[in-house]
Specification:
By secondary structure, the chain is α/β, with parallel strands linked by helices. The protein has 27 helices and 17 strands. The chain folds into four domains: about 200 residues, 3-Layer(aba) Sandwich (Rossmann fold), CATH 3.40.50.300; about 200 residues, P-loop containing nucleotide triphosphate hydrolases (Rossmann fold, 3-Layer(aba) Sandwich); about 100 residues, Winged helix-like DNA-binding domain superfamily/Winged helix DNA-binding domain (Arc Repressor Mutant, subunit A); about 70 residues, HRDC domain (DNA polymerase, domain 1), CATH 1.10.150. The structure holds adenosine-5'-diphosphate and zinc ion (ZN).
Length: about 650
């Protein structure tokens, strides 16, 4: 150990190369284990510091660390960022010319690389295997290891081939890493990657700096999204996830028309346009990308301040992973979602009309139910989210349900009226209708359709005056989410076994009261921090009306927007002025070097520079985030900015 690199130990590398004084979480233990030749499975949330777990051992062990990653588009950025730290890294993937690959192969065989990134499909080629035999491999790191799971949402068949690593290079330590893992995925990673004997390192999946918020969808959605993106998050970098390509383009255009620097991103765009959008997002401040889930895997931009979902994710895993892209820098960030009846209807119908096997459909339903439970909960969102990953926690104080406890009301009477309308249509008329017509009947709202179907003579006509149409939609949504109403062909409503328990009065239906920000197009304040006119009727929610258990039982939905979390600058004005000058210097420097600004220094490092004002190179080197290579490269320039 240390023979080739000249480093005595891990701490020295941590300080000298990475510029950090201490390990984060159990990084130190992983490093020690892998440097000593052990295999490891590392489950850590996004931003937890996974990369260091293999990068540092690769520097300490003789040979090159081989990193298997599906994220071809990001390899160049990763290699550039490592070069900034003075680490010799390269990649081999399909985007390179033959000459480029040749040069990389020669460097690897010649022992000139600390790290080599490879796409998984590469490893299945004989050529790549022969290449690895000709050089010296320090370790294998398998990034995004959940891609090996066939039940997961990111399955990549090429990952299955990675089990050969163990057979072919038995003496080389392997480390699998992911930020997404339920117990089932975790077990699959161990089994399929032949890591049965590996040591597990499982961190808490909590991302305490992310504030989770899920609001009922308002109509029009555009206004609601604009309130959030422009009203609360003005100038911040963020990602908006939408379900379809067309929607990403519409919403991006809408945001642009309203002065937000937004870019669409989806798999239907040509590669150059996608690359350009991604590059702007990574390199320029304050860009908002409106994307399908094709965007974001492996994006490690630290200062993404918000992730917004305007359509319901298909699983909690997906939601957790997408929201996890916010706030990697540990500064306050918001995961915001607008969710409504149409989401539930759409996704339920999609599953039922899909052609998959019954087993596959069951799986999709289970994924959706878990996601809906999270949307409808009246309990702490974080407790539910972490619970899904098998972690027990206490109410967090940093999610909407904790901050603005929803009111729970007894919705049994309303539910009975709704269900009996559905029964009457079916029994008396042999008909099934969608939510719109059923609600019109309950509200006694006469339309051409209610007249032509003669629905105004039904005995439940107009019995539902206690709610308006929007509120009835909330009721239907909650019943659908909890399986108290079923969906048939053409999104028609029907009954389930459980519906009858409600009809008979054997089952109570607590409903989350929608105290909506519906009318609150506040138009107020750019920078818009501060709760908007949400009018949450704050009856303390503790106890009263709740039903047990965190999951599907509980109904909810929400209101209230919270203070937009903005990159906090807790600096006094003189320091803030210096901070801004440092940022300007960084922007110029990054541009000249062709790398994203955060690769030069993170905001947090600039802030520390502004507050502590180091006057010497030694003092500068003491700051967390300043390693040897950056000290050499930027030290003098930074000292000059500080002293001027
Ligand atoms: P992950 O891959 O788990 O999402 P990264 O490896 O990208 O996380 O690290 C997340 C952030 O934490 C990065 O900005 C990184 O520079 C920082 N970081 C990693 N290790 C440390 C450490 N020991 N001390 C301080 N910051 C760290
Ligand atoms: Zn909470």
């Amino acid at each position: 150990m240390g023979v080739e690199t000249g480093y005595a130990n891990a701490r020295e590398v941590l300080r000298d190369v990475f510029g950090y004084d201490s390990f984060k979480g159990f990084q130190g233990e992983v490093v020690e284990h892998v440097v000593g030749g052990g295999d490891a499975v590392v489950l850590m949330p996004t931003g937890g510091g996974k990369s260091l777990c293999y990068q540092l051992p690769a520097l300490l062990r003789p040979g090159t660390g081989v990193v298997v990653s599906p994220l071809i588009a990001l390899m160049q950025d990763q290699v550039d960022a490592l070069a900034q730290l003075g680490i010799r890294a390269a990649f081999l993937n399909s985007t390179q010319s033959w000459e480029e690959s040749q040069a990389v192969e020669r460097a690897f065989v010649g022992g000139e690389l600390d790290l080599l990134y490879l796409a998984p499909e590469r490893l299945s080629s004989q050529r790549a295997k022969d290449l690895l035999d000709r050089g010296r491999v320090a370790l294998f790191a398998i990034d995004e290891a959940h891609c090996v799971s066939q039940w997961g949402h990111d399955f990549r068949p090429d990952y299955l081939g990675l089990s050969v690593l163990a057979e072919r290079w038995p003496g080389v330590p392997r480390i699998a890493l992911t930020a997404t893992a339920t117990a089932a995925t975790h077990a699959e990673i161990r089994q399929r990657l032949a890591l049965e004997d590996a040591r597990d390192f499982v961190a808490s999946f909590d991302r305490p700096n992310i504030r989770y918020r899920i609001e009922p969808k308002r109509s029009p959605l555009a206004g609601q999204l604009l309130d959030f993106v422009k009203g609360e998050q003005a100038g911040n970098c963020g990602i908006v996830y939408a379900a379809t390509r067309a929607r990403t383009e519409q919403l991006a255009a809408m945001l642009r028309a309203n002065g937000v620097d937004a870019e669409p991103y989806h798999a239907g765009m040509d590669a150059a346009a996608r690359r350009a959008a991604q590059a702007r997002f990574l390199r320029e401040p304050g860009v908002v990308v409106v994307a399908t889930i094709a965007f974001g895997m492996g994006i490690d931009k630290p200062d993404v301040r918000f992730v917004a979902h305007v359509d319901l994710p298909k699983s909690v895993e997906g939601y957790y992973q997408e929201t996890g892209r916010a706030g990697r820098d540990q500064e306050p960030a918001v995961a915001w979602m607008a969710y409504g009846l149409a989401d539930v209807v759409q996704q339920r119908s999609l599953i039922e009309s899909s052609t998959g096997s019954p087993e596959h459909k069951r799986l999709l339903r289970a994924h959706l139910d878990a996601m809906l439970a999270l949307c409808e909960t009246v309990e702490c969102r974080r407790v539910g989210l972490l619970g899904y990953f098998g972690e027990v926690s206490q109410p967090c104080g940093n999610c909407d349900t904790c901050l603005w406890p929803p009111q729970v009301v007894d919705g049994t009477r309303g539910a009975q009226k709704l269900l009996s309308t559905i029964v009457r249509l079916e029994r008396e008329r042999g008909q099934r209708f969608g939510a719109g017509q059923v609600i019109d009947i309950l509200c006694g709202r006469s339309t051409a359709k209610t007249r032509s179907w003669d629905h105004e003579t039904l005995s439940t006509w107009g019995v539902g005056q206690e709610y308006n149409q929007a509120q009835w939609r909330d009721v239907v949504r909650q019943l659908l989410a909890r399986g108290l109403v079923s969906l048939g062909d053409h999104s028609t409503l029907g009954l389930t076994e459980a519906s009858w328990e409600v009809m008979r009065g054997d089952r109570q239906v607590p409903l989350r009261r929608e105290v909506l920000a519906r009318s609150s197009r506040s138009g107020g304040g750019k920078g818009g921090v501060g709760p908007k006119a949400a009018g949450v009727v704050g009856e303390p929610s503790a106890g009263g009306g709740r039903v047990g258990g965190r999951a599907v039982q509980d109904s909810v939905a929400v209101a209230a927007s919270g203070p937009g979390a903005r990159a906090a600058d807790a600096l006094d004005s003189a320091d803030a002025e210096l901070f801004e000058r440092l940022r300007a210097w960084r922007a110029e420097t990054a541009k000249a070097a062709g790398v994203p600004a955060y690769v030069v220094f993170h905001d947090s490092v600039l802030r520390a520079m502004a507050a502590r004002r180091p006057a010497t190179r030694e003092a500068l080197f003491e700051l967390s985030g300043v390693g040897r290579a950056k000290l050499e490269r930027y030290g003098d320039a930074v000292l000059e900015v500080i002293s001027s």
